[in-house]
């Protein structure tokens, strides 16, 4: 009996050992398979070319040059005093938010991609529901055109635009932006720890094609100091932007200002920016002579308008979307390079066709160059169309002014990348489609959580959460 028991025990031990050995073999096989997969993935990654941010640097330089050398249409106080926060929110999508840091003399420019409306004392999702006034939300009860900055979850600052008349607490939360002017400031603020290593070191260590040309040019025209300085300045700007763009990949770049907390971090906006102006004081502004006449004409127009806010509801664009489908807002400029500027009809109830150049009445803005006026902390301007920008560069290209040859060369060499950027970032008119959706993170607001008070640029890569 004992012998049989011992045999059985030995067999069971052998079986266990066999199982362990087979398990080990299986594990080794699995590990080998995983290793092979990893090696393959590494080889694939090695073969893949890194994302080309070098050409993107030229795109940002071209955009910056355009804004530095053209007048823009800046929204005035009257725009924010309209009595329909939904209309205002819709109108702002696709336009440009400017933020000026007076202490560091830095100007940030970004396209507005996503906003949320908070519709007065009856909106259960609003901080001012039932006209509740606290130390935090006092700015919501100010006259329209002020900022309302609050801290969310004790961590993130959130930037809002106050609208309507005094004591009517309506506001618009800025959820997502597309940086377009001084992109390096946005990246530096967002990735501060990383940027300190790359931003201030070896700006000019990489050889570029333009630098080679620069050496040849220096040999040929040693006497033309002014021209060389001008060219060297452009090279420095390009290298500066390019070095900063190396900090992040394309995926992170398009999500740079995606989310209210990211917006304020990139723009260096804090609670101290509460109650700042969102418009420029025309009367007390030292605008340069070339813009003085335009300023006076626009100001007189603004003073003549009748501010009868109740009448605006009768033709509310938010409640009558068919008005967006007319042909009145078409650009008079010719199509350049086959860009389609026609709007496409869409039958979906939560989609609005959007003509960014014509949807705001002329009495709600004035024209000036951003470098010619005393800037407020925040201001918003109407975004130029793709045709406007291309028309400017094609005209510049035809001009025989030798001083601008550098920017002309940059445009000629990178025009394709500029057009690709416009296409990807939904700048073309037929892609400027606004969607309405439910607001995010307000389940506590009961039926108000179902209101379609979130406005966003359809299919833009910077949108926080695309509609379902």
Automatic annotation (TrEMBL):
The record's catalysed reaction(s) read:
Hydrolysis of alkylated DNA, releasing 3-methyladenine, 3-methylguanine, 7-methylguanine and 7-methyladenine
Q: Which InterPro entries match?
A: Formyl_transferase-like_C_sf, MPG, MPG_sf
UniProt keywords, alphabetically: DNA damage, DNA repair, Glycosidase, Hydrolase
Q: What class of enzyme is it?
A: hydrolase
Q: Does the keyword Manganese apply?
A: no
SUPFAM superfamilies assigned to the protein according to its UniProt record, in alphabetical order: FMT C-terminal domain-like
According to its UniProt entry, the protein's GO biological process terms are: base-excision repair
User: EC annotation?
Assistant: 3.2.2.21
Name a GO molecular-function annotation: alkylbase DNA N-glycosylase activity
> Which Pfam family, giving just one, matches this sequence?
Pur_DNA_glyco
Function of the protein = Hydrolysis of the deoxyribose N-glycosidic bond to excise 3-methyladenine, and 7-methylguanine from the damaged DNA polymer formed by alkylation lesions.
> Which family is annotated?
Belongs to the DNA glycosylase MPG family.
What is the protein's given name? DNA-3-methyladenine glycosylase II
Q: Origin organism of this chain? A: Plasmodium gallinaceum
């Amino acid at each position: 009996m004992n012998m049989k028991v011992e045999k059985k025990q030995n067999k069971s031990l052998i079986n266990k050992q066999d199982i362990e050995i087979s398990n080990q073999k299986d594990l080794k096989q699995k590990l080998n398979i995983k290793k092979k997969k990893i090696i393959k993935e590494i080889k694939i990654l090695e073969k893949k070319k890194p994302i080309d941010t070098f050409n993107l640097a030229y795109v940002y330089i071209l955009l910056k040059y355009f804004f530095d050398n053209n007048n823009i249409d800046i929204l005035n106080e009257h725009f924010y005093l309209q009595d329909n926060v939904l209309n205002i929110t819709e109108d702002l999508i696709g336009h440009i938010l400017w933020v000026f840091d007076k202490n560091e003399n830095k100007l940030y420019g970004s396209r507005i991609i996503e906003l949320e409306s908070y519709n007065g004392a009856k909106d259960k999702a609003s901080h001012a529901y039932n006209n509740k006034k606290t130390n935090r939300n006092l700015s919501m009860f100010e006259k329209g055109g002020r900022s309302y900055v609050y801290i969310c979850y004790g961590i993130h600052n959130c930037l809002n635009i106050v609208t309507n008349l005094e004591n009517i607490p309506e506001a618009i939360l800025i959820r997502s932006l597309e940086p377009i002017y001084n992109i390096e400031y946005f990246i530096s603020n967002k990735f501060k720890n990383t940027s300190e290593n790359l931003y201030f070191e070896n700006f000019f260590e990489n050889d570029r094609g333009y630098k080679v040309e620069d050496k040849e040019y220096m040999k040929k025209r040693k006497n033309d100091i002014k021209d060389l300085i001008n060219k060297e300045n452009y090279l420095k700007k390009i290298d500066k932007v390019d070095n900063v763009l190396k900090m992040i990949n394309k995926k992170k770049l398009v999500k740079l200002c995606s989310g209210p907390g990211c917006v304020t971090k990139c723009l260096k906006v804090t609670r101290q920016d509460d109650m700042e102006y969102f418009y420029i004081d025309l009367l007390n502004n030292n605008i340069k002579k070339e813009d003085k006449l335009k300023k006076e004409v626009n100001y007189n127009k603004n003073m003549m308008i009748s501010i009868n806010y109740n009448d605006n509801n009768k033709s509310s664009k938010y409640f009558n979307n068919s008005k967006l489908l007319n042909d009145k807002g078409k650009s008079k400029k010719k199509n350049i390079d086959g860009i389609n500027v026609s709007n496409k009809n869409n039958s979906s109830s939560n989609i609005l066709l959007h003509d960014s150049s014509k949807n705001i009445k002329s009495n709600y803005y004035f024209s000036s160059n951003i470098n010619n006026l005393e800037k407020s902390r925040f201001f918003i301007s109407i975004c130029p169309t793709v045709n406007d920008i291309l028309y400017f560069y094609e005209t510049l290209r035809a001009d025989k002014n030798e001083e601008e040859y550098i920017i002309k060369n940059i445009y000629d060499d990178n025009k394709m990348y500029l057009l690709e950027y416009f296409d990807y970032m939904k700048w073309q008119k037929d892609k400027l489609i606004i969607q309405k959706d439910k607001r995010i993170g307000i389940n506590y607001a009961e039926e108000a959580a179902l209101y379609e008070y979130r406005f966003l640029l359809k299919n833009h890569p910077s949108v926080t959460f695309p509609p379902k």
